[in-house]
Specification:
The complex is a heterotrimer of chains A (420), B (377) and C (306). Chain A has 420 residues and is of the alpha/beta class. Chain A is built from 13 helices and 15 strands. Chain B is globular, with a radius of gyration of 23 Å.
């Protein structure tokens, strides 16, 4: 028995050494995943991390948003904002098995933090992912600018304070979209006052975003004179909603509000409503379902469906004309709800880096300097309009737009600015 | 001469190293030194983080090895105990309830809580046949994350609990820096190895293996198989509890999705690959699975992308080896079971057992084919 | 009155869901009956059935065919083709992954089965992506109202197809030579062999039939839900297995009964407790049955073989 033991031990040692050598070797190589910089990299590379859900059901939200961020980096390089430096978008996917995952998001932030060239991160898309990432960003002093997370508790009040575990007074999370305390009521007003709906049945996916937005929606819907006949939660990965919807049908709602994303079941619920006698009932949701994945999954049931988005409709903006045509040329894909927001968020980061570099005499700035510049962003001119960050890190530009699903497409209905 | 002197001083070393020739001893020392130096050799913190995360796979594998490898009980929902350990720490050291207990005693508290749940599940079910037990534990593994997900008032629902406290040691805050976690795992793994090595050779360890080899015979020899199995089950679960605490602290957040069946399968694949019942094998298997999962697969996609850029081959840009992760686990499980059921680094007893049965089985099958070849359905 | 309507409405939901579970449960119970293996990959064969159906439907220019009988014929062809393909997959899996381990310790083939399950899931993920795949709704959809309870053709289809295949299976197992060989092999493999039964081919046929039924379930669930997803088989498989255990594993009638019962339990949990807790309720039933009555509702008390 002696020789085999020796062999196995030697093999074990050899493997350990190889692993150690391998890791040491590749730590010197350039890390980073898919990147876009518009032409060959020249000079020193400065990275903006991009953390979004890019696979599975969430991809129809994540990929158009990613495109917006990539386009901003391409434009920044074209404009030669910083001599001797090239901007690169370093993109990571936070979806696991096709659905956004808080754990994966937290891991991505750690991996961005380990790369000294990453000076800010654009993302995430989903509020529960942000909830896992904000404590990290706060601890590491790495700025996080979200194009699309709408839960108010991420920035406001005691819940937000609890997320900033290391430096409660330091803001490291910013966003360029409006929040659900505006989005929910705006949607409820439309349902109650314009569509004249009176009996709502609420369904949410029990996530930070879904639960929050449905509570906000319901509060305003009741204030407008409507009533809530029931409220249930669904489970991610659930396939069969017949029993749940049959129960809901017994409550005779004239609208079903869904708080959540398509990836957590928004499309399946709409599709199965028809099987359970709720085919003629209106379906109302928020930005989590305003995506092409919803249209694909719901199929012919995607009508009489309404959704709010906590961002401006870029199609209606003169400032966004060039963005829209460039986007088409570059990606040959439709623009998503938050593509323009991602462009604006990335531009804010890029300009904060440029300003910080100027202050440092043209040298590559550190993360703290970039963060300082972001905090003092005032009247930043962007393709989604001029905006500032308030003391919580929220945008002062609070626009909600409303869409309806019709004939296999999302049609724009109206939008309003809720800035005080 | 020198060897003899050294050997006399190191009687306590595990794995029979005390009786090993000097060369093996030196090799062992070299391995420990190299592993301890990794954070100094490789300063990329995402790599260190990946190596540190391999640590929780190892601790979980140690725990599952007690249940599956030593005692021969197949537990499929092992991630449930990992979840219980993580959430116990999250409840008692986060803003969720405003309780902030210290990390270090919580290692033992969570271990105890996980062990109690192990007892509660084990007591009524351990008398079941092997594959029924597997299914019961699988059901339990499905129920636990669901309960954490549905009791959102207490557990934060699908979002889980964020802002979990991170350890401090003599005023030094671990924070999100992976290096101290790497050393913490390192120390705990060494403690586990020494403990488990002693346990395996103890009366309890021999009892477990007697049950694995032949439960009925063990019972006739006067062994209280029920209490021995319960002990294995709760002790294994306690390891998962410890792993859960460090995992939750390092990530500073827990959510139910981190504890699904895939996690249980990952741990099972680790011990099957390495060699059930053998500590070195389990260590080796969990190192391979952990590094594959946290380091090689994420990195290899990057390598393929870089190669694609360098060679102007577009298809390499789109390669995502992460997408093949479960295929790789699956192939490992199937191939190892078919061709080397004792694992890469088998325990002698296990190998003898598995091969004897297989050879006998193959012999009978051949004979059968020769004698009853006719197709008469 | 409304409550009674709700109850019957949920009963229909439960029976339709149960029909799918029952078809899958049959495969579990047949394989377990004959080689005492929990074929963990069986749930994924069910998903594979819906994916095969989808691909076959993709080959047929559905929009050009309008008439009812032709569509019914298409449905039958797709069902049989999906069943055949799934049956072949089942036989291949048995041949490649399980046969070598027939005399190995029991845990070995179970671990292999988990491995096969992961491989199949990953293949399906690479094949159709990791998001919901829409399933063409080519059959005309009519609503029926019986005593105030509404249901559509698809619910009827699910129940009719599953019951038809169950009857066919019963006839097969109890009226044919191969069925007899299966029962004999399940009872005592060695004795069956001495009687001149080819064990290998009998087991292969068992896998073929069980997997083919899963393929049928895959097609009808695709029709019923209008979508399919590569991971569907995992949960559905576990619940179908629960159904097999509830009915008494190894018992064909028990698997059908268990399937319908589990479907009904799920629907009623959703109506009277909370939709969120359906999985927890089903898996708690699994644990309770295994602990208190491992032989299930219809199974016989069999002492453990030593």
């Amino acid at each position: 028995m002696q020789p085999p033991i020796r062999v196995r031990f030697t093999a074990f040692v050899g493997a350990v050494f190889l692993a150690a050598l391998g890791s040491a070797a590749c730590s010197r190589g350039t890390g980073g995943s898919s990147s876009a910089n518009g032409g060959p990299a020249s000079g020193t590379v400065i990275k903006s991390g991009v953390d979004l859900p890019l696979s599975g059901s969430d991809a129809s939200d994540g990929v158009p948003t990613e495109n917006g961020a990539k386009l901003a980096v391409i434009d920044a390089n074209k404009q030669h904002l910083m001599a001797g430096y090239t901007f690169v978008a370093d993109v990571l996917d936070d979806a696991v098995n096709g659905v956004h995952s808080p754990n994966q998001g937290a891991k991505n932030i750690q991996s961005f933090a380990s790369d000294g060239a990453v000076l800010g991160v654009v993302g995430p898309f989903n509020s529960n992912v942000a909830k896992a990432e904000i404590p990290l960003s706060n601890n590491l002093g790495l700025a996080l600018i979200s194009p699309a997370t709408t839960n108010p508790d991420l920035t406001k009040g005691p819940p937000a304070l609890q997320l900033r575990t290391t430096n409660p007074s330091s803001i490291t999370f910013f966003r360029v979209c409006a929040t659900d305390d505006i989005q929910g009521p705006a949607g409820a007003d439309y349902a109650g006052k314009v569509l004249k709906l009176r009996r709502a049945y609420l369904l949410d996916d029990n996530e930070t975003y879904g639960r929050g937005v449905s509570d906000q929606w319901a509060r305003q819907f009741i204030a407008d004179g409507g009533s809530v006949v029931g409220h249930d939660h669904i489970t991610k990965g659930q396939q069969d909603f017949h029993a749940l919807l049959t129960r809901a049908g017994g409550l005779h709602p004239d609208v079903v509000f869904y708080g959540g994303t398509t990836s957590t079941g928004g499309g399946l619920v709409r599709k199965q409503m028809a099987d359970s006698g709720l085919g003629g009932t209106a379906y109302f949701g928020a930005d989590g379902i305003r995506n092409d994945e919803f249209l694909k999954v719901a199929g012919t049931s995607a009508s009489d469906v309404y959704a709010t988005v906590a961002a401006i409709n870029a199609d209606k903006l003169a400032a966004a004309k060039t963005f829209l045509s460039e986007y088409q040329d570059q990606f040959h894909q439709p623009v998503g709800s938050y593509s323009a927001n991602a462009y604006a968020a990335t531009m804010v980061v890029v300009h904060a880096i440029v300003d910080a570099a100027k202050a440092a005499g043209g040298k590559m700035p550190d993360r703290a300097a970039v963060l300082e510049k972001l905090k003092t962003t005032k009247g930043f001119p962007s393709i989604i309009g001029s905006f500032s960050f308030d003391r919580n890190g929220d945008t002062t530009n609070k626009i909600i737009s409303i869409y309806e699903a019709k004939n296999g497409a999302w049609m724009f209905l109206t939008q309003q600015n809720y800035a005080k | 001469m020198l060897g003899g002197a050294l050997r006399r001083r190191v009687r306590w070393l595990p794995f029979g190293l005390s009786d090993a020739p000097l060369s093996r001893l030196l090799v062992g020392v070299a391995v420990v030194i190299v592993l301890a130096m990794i954070p100094m050799l490789d300063r990329n913190s995402s790599h260190i983080s990946a190596f540190a995360d391999t640590g929780y796979v190892m601790i979980l594998a140690f725990g599952l090895n007690i249940i599956v490898g030593y005692t021969g009980l197949l537990a499929l929902g092992f991630a449930a105990f990992f979840a219980i350990g993580s959430y116990t720490y999250a409840f008692l050291a986060s803003p969720q309830y405003g309780v902030h207990l210290s990390f270090w005693p919580m290692l033992l508290v969570s271990a105890a809580v996980a062990a109690i749940f192990g007892l509660l599940l084990g007591a009524p079910t351990l008398r079941l046949r092997g594959d029924y037990l597997a299914i019961v534990t699988l059901g339990f593994g499905e129920i636990v994350p669901q309960v954490f997900q549905n009791l959102d008032k207490y557990t934060g629902g699908p979002d889980g609990i964020a802002g979990i406290d991170q350890p401090r040691l003599f005023g030094y805050a671990f924070g999100f820096n992976p290096t101290p976690y790497y050393y913490l795992y390192f120390v705990i793994i060494v403690i586990c190895l020494v403990l488990l090595n002693n346990l395996r050779n103890s009366r309890v360890g021999r009892t477990w293996m007697a049950i694995r080899e032949d439960e009925l015979a063990a019972e006739h020899m006067g062994i209280n198989t029920t209490s021995a199995k319960l002990l294995a089950f709760s002790l294994g679960s306690a390891f998962a509890g410890v792993a859960g605490v460090i995992y939750a602290a390092k990530l500073s957040t827990v959510s139910p999705s981190g504890f699904d069946f895939n996690t249980s399968v990952m741990i099972l694949a680790a011990i099957v690959l390495g060699g059930m019942g053998n500590l070195i094998g389990v260590l080796f298997g969990s190192a391979i699975i952990g590094l594959l999962n946290f380091f090689v697969l994420p990195q290899s996609s990057n390598w393929a992308h870089s190669l694609g850029t360098a060679l102007h081959m577009d298809f390499l840009q789109g390669v995502d080896l992460n997408a093949y992760r479960f295929m790789i686990y699956g192939i490992i499980l199937v191939l190892v079971m078919l061709f080397r059921p004792e694992g890469l680094v088998p325990s002698a007893a296990r190998r003898a057992e598995l091969h004897a049965e297989q050879e006998a089985g193959a012999g009978i099958a051949l004979q059968e084919q020769a004698e009853f070849g006719a197709d008469i359905p | 009155m409304a409550d009674i309507h709700q109850f019957f409405q949920q009963l229909i939901n439960g029976v339709a869901l149960g029909g799918v579970y029952a078809l899958i449960a049959l495969g579990y119970t047949m394989v377990y009956g004959i080689i005492e293996l929990i074929n963990f990959a069986h749930g994924d064969v069910y998903t594979l059935g819906s994916f095969f159906s989808l691909s076959i439907l993709g080959l047929i220019p559905l929009s050009h065919i309008a008439s009812g009988p032709a569509l019914g014929l298409i449905a039958l062809v797709v069902i049989l083709a999906a069943a055949l393909l799934c049956g072949i997959v089942g036989v291949l899996v048995e041949r490649l992954a399980y046969r070598r381990l027939r005399n190995a310790p029991r845990l070995a083939p179970l671990i292999t089965a988990i491995g096969v399950s992961l491989i199949l899931e990953n293949i399906m993920q690479l094949w159709k992506g990791n998001s919901e795949v829409p399933f063409p709704q080519f059959l005309p959809d009519r609503w029926h109202i019986v005593g105030g309870v509404k249901f559509d053709d698809r619910a009827v289809l699910v129940v009719a197809v599953s019951v038809a295949f169950m009857i066919a299976l019963n006839l097969f197992v109890f009226r044919t030579r191969l069925g007899k060989a299966m029962r004999a092999t399940a009872q005592d493999r060695d004795a069956a062999q001495l009687m001149g039964i080819n064990i290998n081919s009998t087991i292969a046929w068992t896998f073929f039939i069980g997997s083919a039924l899963a393929g049928v379930a895959g097609f009808i669930s695709g029709m019923y839900y209008g979508t399919t997803f590569f991971l569907n088989g995992y949960q559905a498989g576990l619940k179908a297995f629960t159904a097999a255990v509830l009915g008494g594993i190894g018992n064909i009638t028990g698997a059908m009964l268990g399937g319908f019962l589990i479907g009904i339990v799920e629907a009623m949990t959703s109506q009277y407790i909370s939709d969120q807790w359906t999985s927890v309720v089903v898996f708690s039933i699994l644990i309770l049955i295994l602990v208190f009555r491992p032989s299930g509702l219809l199974g016989e008390q069999v002492p453990e073989k030593v």
